[in-house]
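Letters spell out the chain; backbone shape is given numerically. Both lines appear below:
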Amino acid sequence: MFLVSIILSLFLDLVPPASFEASWTQVRHSPLLTEDLQSSGTVVLKEPSYLRWEVKEPVQSVTEFGADDSPRSRFRMPTEKDFKVKEEGEGTIILEPLRRDLRQMFRRITLTLDPVSSKVQSVFLEGTDDGWTRIDFKDVK
């Protein structure tokens, strides 16, 4: 979930608007598991640091950051300065982490954007353990 906040905050930095709402489906592959994990839900991200990540399946849960002023609810979203950013063809942005803490979580993030609207369509995270996560967005607002 933390990785999603990173990705979406970077998306907002790279491709405005200042908010993002969508339904999502996620597939997580790990060499440690016999089959991929699948989940779905909704996400709301609003600047400067509000994130609501709702999982509807397989188990319902809601996580919110920035909903109040408590220290627990605050988090610093990484910016494009924390990544090497490059375009790879029309509608594809590659993010490679520069900070050591981020490099320990993943090798690379690939954002695929709709070529007409520039809205994010999918995110592919390459993990450091030969695992990966793909998140596909629909009904993006």
